[in-house]
Amino acid sequence: MKILGVGIDIVDKMQVAKLIKKDVFGHFLKKWFTTEEREYLLKSKNIVNEFSIIFSIKESFIKASSGNITLKDMKNINVSKFNYKYKISYTKDEKFSLDKYYMITNSAIKSLVISSVVILEK
């Protein structure tokens, strides 16, 4: 497998906790997260942690795309969780995803979430 891109992102959970308390949080969710992600986050028992993980995975994916995907495309990136694993789907350009495999890692410590995405050729 050939590595096509690597992206890493760190989110400060304390900053996320502050954002959640602000009136603009709903607007932020609508602007940057898909409907599926918003529904998942609003049902989450630990919204700060899950928000931090999903946001850092999305940011890592953008960085790993080597400029093919930009911040404007963030709402077209869907991060879902199934059986304790996160999965990425990109809905704007299906051709981009056809021949690629995404490897996601993340680690959450007390105050930070660190995620990485590696885009590999299938």
TrEMBL record:
The keyword Transmembrane helix does not apply. GO terms for molecular function: holo-[acyl-carrier-protein] synthase activity; magnesium ion binding. Residues 5-93 form the 4'-phosphopantetheinyl transferase domain. It comes from Sporosarcina limicola. Pfam families: ACPS (PF01648). Transmembrane segments: none annotated. Gene3D superfamilies: 4'-phosphopantetheinyl transferase domain (3.90.470.20). This is Phosphopantetheine--protein transferase-like protein.
